[in-house]
Amino acid sequence: MGDSSQSYIRLVQHLIEKCLIFKMTKEECMVALSKHANIKPVITSTVWNELEKENKEFFEAYAQSQSKQDRMSEEETSQMIQKMISDSPKDPDE
């Protein structure tokens, strides 16, 4: 895999990690990254699935901890995604 592909995957992983901080579901993350970062949902889903495989215990606990009252409104989520994208470096390793 080339350097640009690895950098892109790292960027997607970084943005997924931000989605996790905001307690988003996989589906919400896929929609948000598609809408705000122009990342195809299939790519987000694939990277998410790999993260789940590598961090099984974390994702099991994450799934259990999610509840409606703890989650942000759609507007709050949209604002936070816009902010994290504008704050994100081009290369998450910078």
Which properties best describe this structure?
single chain, mainly alpha, globular
Structural commentary:
The chain has 94 residues and is an all-alpha fold. It has one domain. It contains 5 helices and no strands. It is globular and about 35 Å long. This is Plant protein 1589 of Uncharacterized protein function. It holds the Pfam family A_thal_3526. Residues 64-94 are annotated as: Disordered. InterPro entries: CHP01589_pln.
Q: What is the rounded Rg?
A: 13 Å
Sheet/helix structural class: mainly alpha
- Distance, first to last CA: 20 Å
> How many structural domains can be distinguished in the coordinates?
1
Number of strands: 0
The percent of residues in helical segments reads over 70%
Region (Disordered): 64-94
InterPro entries: CHP01589_pln
Pfam families: A_thal_3526
Protein name: Plant protein 1589 of Uncharacterized protein function
List the helices and strands and how they pair.
Elements: H1 3-21, H2 26-37, H3 41-54, H4 56-65, H5 74-87
Quick summary of this structure?
The protein has 94 residues and is mostly helical. The chain has five helices and no strands.
